[in-house]
Amino acid sequence: MPLSEHEQKLLEQLEKQLHEDDPKFASSMGSDAGRSWSTRHLVIGVLATLAGVVLLLLGVTIQNIFVGVLGFVVMGAGVYYATMRGGAGKSKAAGVARKPGKPRSSFMGNLEERWDERHRGEP
């Protein structure tokens, strides 16, 4: 079910405000084209994971704990590398400028500030 025009405008305003208030969180939650899944990362990660499983089994077979631990570490690194996303979108978040003269504050701080402004009658 598509969103109405009013809902789309509200969603765009919320996204814009999120990018202004907390660009790091917004970039981590966003679906930028530059931060997509990489087939290369996935293939290399799966191969490293399989190599880690083989090393782990080899370590158990020859009863050498160091080879088994090394296999486990390689397996974990392979899974991490396979699930890593491309890093091309990182520079975009750094380019978001903050409002001049306004100190950086947390999300809850912004909510408290807006709450106080409402009770004082400010827009």
Describe it for me?
There is one protein chain. With 123 residues, this protein is mostly helical. Helix content is 69%, strand content 0%. It is built from 6 helices and no strands. It has helices at 5-21, 23-29, 39-61, 65-83, 90-94, 107-120. Helix 1 packs across helix 2 and helix 3 packs antiparallel against helix 4. The two termini are 34 Å apart. Residues 88-98 have low confidence and may be disordered.
* Molecular shape: elongated
Run of helices and strands:
HHHHHH
The helix count comes to 6
Question: Average pLDDT value?
Answer: 77
Radius of gyration: 23 Å
Report the major sheet.
Answer: none
Percent of sequence in beta strands: under 5%
Separation of the first and last Cα atoms = 34 Å
Q: Which short descriptors sum up this protein?
A:
123 residues, mainly alpha
